[in-house]
Predict the structure.
Amino acid sequence: MSTATKMKFSEFIDLLLAALSDRDQQPGGSERFHDLYEIARKLKEPVPDKWIFDAAKVLEARDLIQAVFSFGAAHAQLTGQGRLYVEEERGTGIIHRFHQERDHFIFRGEDEGDAVSEGSTVGRPIDVEKERRAVFTLLDRIEELLKKERFLNAKERQDLLADLESVRGQLRKREPNRTALAELLAPLNYISSVRGVAANLIQLINNS
């Protein structure tokens, strides 16, 4: 992403929060974590990638979002304080401008639920694996750690890797079997080298 921008960082923070609020208001949006990098890519004013991560940290510190950071990804959902901040159009003034003229700030498309140009497809199915990119990234990381874990014998390692592949299969479904996921992931809590990553994974799954 280009690093050239006329926007102030303080304005970008408010704008990112307002765009996240739009996602939050979509059906089921308040129950999901949203990819902040994906949201930022839809803004017409480009910003450095570092700004996105830093903005997420600032918003989390202000209790305006709940964020999950994993291997270069940042996913977030609004807190109650965050919704109030956007509704009351606090901050730099850019949230009010965003509400008045969204098309000036953001590229519109089918995933925002807006009408698109004639001949395009409205309601196009979303790529589930792309939508859950952060989850699959964590699964890859757990697989790497299991392959290096010295305290597993060959049979234990093989069984755990097979369980991970079953988890991937479930998560490629629009509506995975969450009971099956819980059973498949439970053994990871007993392996110290992957316990922390597994906890982040479970949190993302529960909010997806």
Observations:
- The chain is about 55% helix and 5% strand.
